Amino acid sequence: xxxxxxxxxxxxILSSCKEAxxxxxxxxxxxxxxxxxxxxxxxxxxDAFTPPVAxxxxxxxxxxxxxxxxxxxxxxxKTITSKINGLEEFKLSEIQDVNPELSALLAFSITGKKLIxxxxxxxxxxxxxxxxxxxxxxxxxxxxxxxxxxxEISKQLSTWIDKDMYxxxxxxxxxxxxxxxxxxxxxxPDYLSGLEPHWDKIRTMVIDSANVFKYKALPTYSTEExxxxxxxxxxxxxxxxxxxxxxxxIAWFWDCNPIMTIHKGxxxxxxxxxxxxxxxxxxxxxxxxxxxxxxxxxTKAYTMTSMAMFDAIIAVWHVKYKTDLVRPVTYIQENINxxxxxxLQTPPFPEYTSGHSATSASAAEILTxxxxxxxxxxxxxxxxxxxEKRTFKSFREAANQVNLSRFYGGIHYMQGVEEGGRQGKxxxxxxxKKLQ
Length: 436
Description:
Layout (H helix, E strand, L loop, with lengths): L1 H16 L12 H17 L4 H22 L27 H16 L4 H17 L3 H22 L4 H4 L58 H14 L3 H9 L6 E5 L2 E5 L4 H15 L4 H29 L4 H8 L19 H17 L5 E3 L10 E3 L2 H14 L5 H22 L1
Antiparallel strand pairs: 1-2, 3-4
Helix pairs in contact: 1-5, 2-3, 2-4, 2-10, 3-4, 3-6, 3-11, 4-5, 4-6, 9-14, 10-11, 10-13, 11-13, 11-15, 13-14, 13-15, 14-15
């Protein structure tokens, strides 16, 4: 409370010391948008949200920013409101003297705060934006009008968000494994129940429904060594026996497990990391910084990528619980080697298709459409977690490495990652076609 009072006093002092500039001057830059995205990623990581839930938060916050900015700078961004499922045109009052970028960033903050537990992240973001607005020369009137405009859009967007079935799915029954050998069962070390079994009930953002992808049929379950199913699993086992340090590095680089647990005796330690979609949003942060992308190109990258990843995850979860496929660790321990453990911790949901593969492929397609093919970039996301940075020749190369990382990590079959990659690419192309 004392900090907020101090901030308000500082605003008044700064306001009196600097001549105000026109409301429509672009004073906020790409760095400010990147900072807002970082606040979102940190808040989601702090609260340890799962990848599906995190993708919802990323998409809605960035959509709030995009819609607000587009409504005030129609020459810089295309309108997409009519292409978003269930989203009606906004009814806005005539508010004069609004700064577009400030209002958009405040809408981002308001929406982010609605979705998160650690609200102080977005309260701090909003306060820092207002303080900077004064420092940059915006008047108190422009700041207040910009906030009012952001509140109007956020309120209407909030009504739409509340109808996406998220609240309802919190009350649905937990997933109970069938205990059949071909189906998913709770996996070590935590043996958690199936994560988000009703996620395909969540309203998609752009694609028509969760059931848009025609996946390749799986081989018939069998423990016979000459069967296609056994060969599919044994491929994972043989890979683990012949792994290399480089392959293990690739697996860990793309692990992106937001709630990794380490068990030592009776002690359990939890490590929080960026989710798979969070990792890709951080890649956008790095790219836009390195090439000094303009504010609107960066806005487009964040919004379209987050929407594609959100829809891709819904589509993946539909297939996961429809096929309900056993994970490699379960089959291998029961039929090949009881002492075997994968490199990575197996996430608590069915195997087919790979969620990280679909997430990454959808992101890669969107970013390729914006920044171009054969776009070389270096990703240092994992430095903070003690891992190296990696360089890629293109977004698609990075997505292909994600596929291999899940296979190298021992948590997915090759068919699972290949089909997941194809699924994410199809979802992204459907979105690009509809929006462009």
